[in-house]
Amino acid sequence: MSYQAYLDAVEAKSGRTPQQLLDEAGGRGYGPSTKAADVLAWLADDYGVGRGHAMAFYGVLKNGAGGAVPDRHGGTTGSHRDESSTLRLDGVAARSS
Fold this sequence. Notes:
By secondary structure, the protein is mainly alpha-helical. Helix 1 crosses helix 4 and helix 3 crosses helix 4. It contains five helices and no strands. The two termini are 23 Å apart.
């Protein structure tokens, strides 16, 4: 599963785009220095998001949309491949219109 697919699954589970979740995280005081456990607990408690998916979101919170995908996965082949090393945060609907 690609990192983008993980973010898309978080959106499906939470009903919020990754950007909306980042905004909510900021409102809670979460940022790059926040511990992963705090973000994982929030996403699990409020949205029922599992650990793996929450860790993908945490990667974006910590490293930004352009730094969350490891170089070995961006633009490569295979099941974990992402089209780009920059993730889309505007939601699935924005890509399908």
